Recover the amino acids of this structure.
DNA sequence: ACGGCACTGGGTACGCTGTTCGCAAAGAAC
DNA sequence: GTTCTTTGCGAACAGCGTACCCAGTGCCGT
């Protein structure tokens, strides 16, 4: 007696018996994603999704084992938005930077992705395809496999960091960032922490220069070149 | 009429009037931290903390405006665990790597820190001290201030990433990582995704070699050297 | 063709959460 | 001594994820 797979990705959506379902994972995921896009991750509750679909909260559990699984579906759905059709060009740095730009675009379209704790939401099939794509670009490099994985993980981390800072800089509308700015201002004007004050006072880099283009190649070089 | 400060760090704990409080922020924070250490961040609810302190849930709101503020107190409390007494040595790389080791130790003592979304929990006074310490080590470098800030942010990101992977590798006891491993195994044995399979099959680096020592200097070099 | 069974829909309900309100008691300020 | 601010906290509210149960539905084996 083999157990039912614990991973949602190995669990078939339908076994064939019984009445044909009125919904499916894709539809539920789409509803959840549009809800998150519109009102943030906090608005993604089973009840709201169900209401959006015109059904009851309990019905969703026919398609998903838990809310966390639904979050995984959402994350993988947006992972599927990046285009992986272009084969490796031979220039791995350019390939990875291009990938990073696409991932950043996805993050910008779905800022709630930043609220998903990276270690708690797992890797789905689209994310795996993305990973394979990145590793294919690195295929020519004579570097241990785990080191390549680290480099790709760092790439994702950098993209998330970049989007986070650019969102914080752009919109200080939230009460949270108001409080944050209030405190940071008090600290810098207090005179203690001179290095911090100096660093914050430094002119930001030219707007045209892209953070990804500036940082990523240097960092990848540090990680992947001997 | 000036508004009351939105940041908890600028709000005095006591104004002097009324009866003397039975608790204080430090005590509440300590209770919350020990609760999180023992049973994870999910166990940190206002009711449980209050019960631990022998009081009612509503009483906590005399000391803290919201649960999120309490999380900030917790994060800053562990940020205070790192020792910043050693002045810059003149070797900024060594200084930053040493700082990273201390931060990693703090993460290991309090793994729930990884569950705090980095962008949502703000920077408190201890974290600011830490930042100042790192910037002091970089004082001699002729590099724009914002670039230094980026580098320090990346340093923190790497430490978090490192602890996350080592915790996932160490304990696959949770149902989540079981599901994750199940899916990843299915993918690699399916034959699609050859690069991923190869990367995962690669021998892990020698256990003695420290991830921080291996990765950090190279990455910092990539970010901070011309 | 048909009986049985595996499945779906969804109302109801449980236990938990963060948070607000209101009131009694306590102590500093004038 | 009066006044005013602050504290403790029981009660309650709205919302959450999720388990349970029952009725209905359509495929499968015979």
């Amino acid at each position: 007696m083999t157990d039912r797979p614990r991973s949602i990705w190995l669990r078939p959506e339908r076994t064939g018996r019984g009445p044909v379902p009125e919904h499916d994972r894709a539809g539920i995921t789409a509803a959840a994603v549009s809800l998150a896009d519109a009102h943030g991750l906090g608005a993604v509750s089973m009840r709201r999704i169900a209401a959006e679909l015109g059904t009851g909260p309990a019905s969703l559990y026919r398609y998903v084992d838990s809310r966390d699984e639904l979050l995984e579906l959402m994350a993988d759905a947006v992972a599927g938005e990046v285009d992986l059709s272009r084969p490796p060009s031979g220039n791995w740095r350019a390939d990875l930077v291009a990938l990073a730009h696409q991932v950043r675009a996805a993050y910008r379209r779905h800022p709630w992705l930043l609220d998903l704790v990276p270690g708690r939401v797992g890797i789905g099939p689209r994310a795996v395809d993305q990973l394979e794509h990145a590793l294919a670009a690195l295929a020519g490099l004579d570097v241990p496999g785990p080191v390549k994985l680290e480099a790709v993980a760092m790439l994702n981390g950098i993209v998330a960091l970049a989007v986070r800072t650019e969102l914080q800089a752009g919109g200080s509308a939230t009460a949270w960032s108001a409080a944050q700015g209030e405190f940071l201002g008090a600290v810098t004007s207090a005179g203690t922490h001179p290095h911090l004050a100096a660093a914050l006072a430094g002119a930001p880099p030219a707007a045209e220069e892209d953070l990804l283009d500036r940082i990523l190649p240097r960092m990848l070089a540090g990680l992947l070149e001997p």
Notes: Chain B has nine helices and no strands.
